[in-house]
Predict the structure.
Amino acid sequence: MNDIFKNKYLLGALFAGLLLLPFVAGDYLLRVIIVAGIYVILTLSLNLVTGYTGQFCLGWAAFYGIGAYTSALLAINLKLSFWIGLPVAGIMAALFGIALGIPTMRLKDIYLAITTLGFGEIIRLILLNWSDLTRGSMGLPGIPAPSIFGISLDNNYFYYYFMLLLVLIVILAMERIIDSRLGRALSAIREDELAAKSMGINTTRYKITAFAVGAFFAGIAGSFHAHYSSFIDPQSFSFSESTIILAMVVLGGMASIKGSVMGAIILTLLPEALRDFSEYRMIVFGLIMMGVMLIRPQGIWGQTKPCNTSIRKIMFKAKGGAIKDAVGS
């Protein structure tokens, strides 16, 4: 399947199809595709932390919510433009990523997972109970749509093309990160943190960097979601949302950019495709997930050899070549 992405003609046809899609898709389908784009960004951001760095996170929706509320509050209370709120939302989420990373980077496996789960619940409870700022369970309605020179861009065509642009930017950024010295260091940490330390890699700094970068992209997705939906509330960023994002990473394939894209698209479109079977769709959905995991435990587009990073086991055998490459030996 990798050969598909090496063929410039197929890539060109795919890109042309994406550009023309809004003209042939109905309004409902286009909205579903836009939501899938949001989840693509979220899945890519979590995969950087969980798939490439080996840090298991159960509270990723917290960064999604931080970005959404930051952008929404700036627009509602300070009347700031979406174009200002978008990067500020990413920066705010990144700062929280650093704040979470500093005290937790010595934790591993299930201990890190539980800590991140607790962080996610803390953020949700703050959003729920800080009524003076967030309106609590009533949520934030009336979030303005993006505009240029006073012209509102509140239509699915704008949202689709802007989401497509965001997804392409995030994919390119992820490609550059994974192929850089940072990416090689993250892979070495995932394989064996102790061996990486012994080779001179500052594991704490790199793990915090991964959290910050991943949280930044999650915050960007949250900002877009807030202005697209025009309403947000704390329940949109609960633990169940974190598990959905994690399921997309696992289904598509850990440490795989293409897998992240595919996992997000499948788990967004599949429930909609099964909507006609409302009484049984979750059963069918679960059976499909189980079947994929049994047939391809590494995920649909994961590595041929299953990635050792998993819910059960994060740390494992060292690969000296990756570690030497990361430290520039």
User: Anything to note?
Assistant: The first strand starts at residue 147 and ends at 148. DSSP finds 14 helices and two strands in the chain. The beta strands are 147-148, 151-152. The two ends are 33 Å apart (CA to CA).
